[in-house]
TrEMBL record:
PROSITE patterns: PROKAR_LIPOPROTEIN. Residues 42-300 form the Periplasmic binding protein domain. Residues 1-21 form the signal peptide. The keyword Membrane does not apply. It is found in: Cell envelope. GO terms for cellular component: cell envelope. This is ABC transporter substrate-binding protein. It comes from Agromyces fucosus. One of its GO terms (molecular function) is carbohydrate binding. Keywords: Signal. It comes from the Bacteria. Belongs to the bacterial solute-binding protein 2 family. Pfam families: Peripla_BP_4. The keyword Lipoprotein does not apply.
Amino acid sequence: MKKLIGIAAAASLALVLAGCAGGDGGTGAAEGPKALDELVVGFAQVGAESGWRTANTKDIQASFEEAGIELKFSDAQQKQENQIKAIRSYIQQGVDYIAFSPVVETGWDAVLNEAKAAGIPVVLTDRAVDSKDESLYVSFLGSDFIEEGKKAGQWVLDEYADVTEPVNIVQLEGTTGAAPAIDRAEGFADVIAENPNLEVIESQTGDFTRAGGKQVMEAMLKSNPDIDLVYAHNDDMGLGAIEAIEAAGLVPGQDIKIVTVDAVKDGMQALADGKINFIVECSPLLGAQLVDIIKTLNDGGTVEPRIITEETTFTQEQAIEALPDRQY
Ligand code: AHR
């Protein structure tokens, strides 16, 4: 684990340890708490690349509205320079807190130091940054992506436990340099390494989009006639792969098995329909916990530096059962 190791905590609002800090502890509450309707939070979102992202944006906006806290929102269209610009603009506007989901892991120290110099606490949501200086952010709220990759790998390991021939796996990676792309690949590779028959024969980025997944899968099908399984780093790329597989006259879920991460409604429907074989959940519902972190900091409390989201996995039967109540 590169960052913030070993501070795992189950996701819950109770993670927040209100009232523990002496002074402002970098929380920005030195002058005493502000009324919630006076607080301003700037949120720099990655983009709108996937169903997961859309659900995450909706949940964050709805949670702040419900809490009566002003949220300034920007969409970086998956470009780091746009996110840096948005953060600089929040610093200039003198917001009380900044939250963001970094499009890629590296390259944040300069802008985060600017936020620190301006006394604006930063909360990372969903994705981590790769920085040696952990004082640049107050907390990182989000999934354990390595664990997600391991869960995907474990399903593959079990599914092919009795197979004695090579299993050809292709991987549809998320955005190059993004924490979930790096970590989901790492967790998966670690687990499947236990069986030498399981081989990732090709791995390409589909940038977490459906169109990207489709395009990459089309090319992979042309260059590899014997693909047994697709491991897609999110549902959207898996759904794009389904389109490419069907267009090639093959049956997704049967001729080529598919494992994805996220469990958004469209992915769950494809799992229920037997076109995807297994989904590892990644929850986009981070809004309530983020609001709670902001409230605690505003009250002069401290928060855990790492808050891990609770998640599960879905088989076809479990997807059929869960679908009617799925919120996103
Ligand atoms: O960072 C979370 C990932 O980003 C989701 O798995 C993916 O769908 C999104 O684009």
